[in-house]
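Review session, final week

We close the course with one last complete record, chosen because it touches almost every idea we covered. It is DUF2267 domain-containing protein, a protein from Methylocella silvestris with 126 residues. Go through it on your own first, then we will talk.
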Amino acid sequence: MEDLIARISATAGIEPDTARKAVGAILAFLRKDGPQDQIDDLFSRFPGAAEAAAAAGAEQRGMLSGLMGMMGGGLMGLAARLSGLGLSMAQMQEVGRLLFAYAEEKAGAERVRAAAAGIPGLSQFL
């Protein structure tokens, strides 16, 4: 996972801690909104994914949960969360692109696409 964080930090021009939080937020979103069987399969082949999603999920359930609820869920809620980390739209797209490319390296394109297919609107970003 650290190589992914370093790759995202360098390519997207963001601090490693922000990259880590952004990756965690995206993975927590997948865990929450994705088809469980496909996400479980994907995460089992993606070292550190389950742990990053759990850590981000715990943080989101903290004091920010009320604010996140007001912002909405789905992709719009995720975008609001990433924006709250200080990411521009271009940086959000770059983080997502790099994260999904890394997931494909680890788990295969078919697994990533199967997981994304269960989340309305997500496949257009792959």
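Two points worth writing down before the exam:
Residues 2-125 form one domain.
The first helix runs from residue 2 to 12.
Good luck, everyone.
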